[in-house]
Known about the structure:
Layout: E1 2-7, H1 11-24, H2 35-44, E2 49-53, H3 62-75, E3 80-82, H4 93-102, E4 107-111, H5 112-115, H6 125-133, E5 137-141, H7 154-164, E6 169-172, H8 180-189, E7 193-196, H9 212-217, E8 222-223, H10 236-243, H11 249-263
Parallel strand pairs: 1-2, 2-3, 4-5, 5-6, 6-7, 7-8
The protein binds zinc ion.
Amino acid sequence: MLDVHTHLHPPRLFAxxxxxxxxxxxxxxxHPSEPVAVATDLRAAGVERFVFCSxxxxxxxxxxxNAWLAETSRRLxxxxxxxxxxxLDDPDAAGDLRAALADGCIGLKIHEDVQxxxxxxxxxxxxxxxxxxxxxFVLAHIGPxxxxxxxxxxxxxxxxxxxxHPALRVVVAHMGVxxxxxxxxxxxxxxNLFIDTTMAFASDDLRTTAQAPELxxxxxxxxxxxxxxxIPYPYCAEREAIDAVGLSELARRRIFSENxxxxxxxx
Length: 267
Ligand SMILES: [Zn+2]
């Protein structure tokens, strides 16, 4: 099992994020945040390898964050692999990404809401070109979900990125809720577009309405992600909820490992 969506942050940032969740949501988050403890939990749950990320919510911090992410991956002996972060208001975001990829990051995390930007911002073009060339992938949280369900035509933005960068691999987080149907339709036409399962099966806040037949048909485009450790339920809840859908063994194998290997040669 490969988990393509987890979070590790430097201690001060993690504490701030936990405080933010405590103030803004009813989520009770009781999992560890220290990287070795998180990795230990994932190993115990049967995860072969995981991808982790943080995000620069303001200018001036991306370089240090990326250095911390790459160093943390080395501390974990490569068991967890990092996604870089950039902030478009920094003077050289493309240079920041280049440095992060050279240091061991395997792609880029974008969070439209937290970073207050759009995934199709043209300033991402040189960044996406680098990622496509290096077989890195973009993991994108589109729109203000779960706090607001209006993504302002999120699928249109994602489709325009892939129209400009057809070789780029893009993962839309959280099954693209609430636009899952639109993404499933796009996935049928765009082989480099994926959606991840993160919180869409175990959480009431982000639950997908997609049913077994659609999920089975799109199983070549769905990758497993958990959002661990920022989840208000046990790690196994997401996997159990996916298992409860009743997919074929082939679809399960694709979702839990094969598609992730197609997404990234580094996994
Ligand atoms: Zn996440």
